[in-house]
Amino acid sequence: MHDNRSPHWRQRRAVAATGADRGLRPLIGPPGRPTRPRRFFTVHLGFTAPDAADAREQAVTYAEALSLLRPEVALGAAALSPADAWHRAERLFCGAVGPDGERCVDVAEHPGFHHAPGPGGLGWGDGDA
Length: 129
Fold this sequence. Notes:
Blueprint: H1 7-17, H2 52-69, E1 79-80, E2 90-91, E3 114-115, E4 123-124
Antiparallel strand pairs: 1-2, 3-4
């Protein structure tokens, strides 16, 4: 290091002079990153399957298993596409919004009622299920 005049050192001296080191609330805070809103990201997992129907079934199984291990995974956002055509992604789960704001967790294009997550989840809509 050739230059001993770091702006961070000057700021530390200024924070110390305000009494922050004695438990008082500092008037000047350390530099920090502004808090940003949380963003949505997607992970793409590759696997082989004999055909599209089997691939959809495996993808649903993988998504449900991962959501059990990691509850922060957005199960309703799970999609399936051929490895060389991500622009052809198809939703795996229904995601229909119910009367209380809950989302249906059944597979996409399922027959019957919609059901909220959890045992005994609220059901709504038309059908026999």
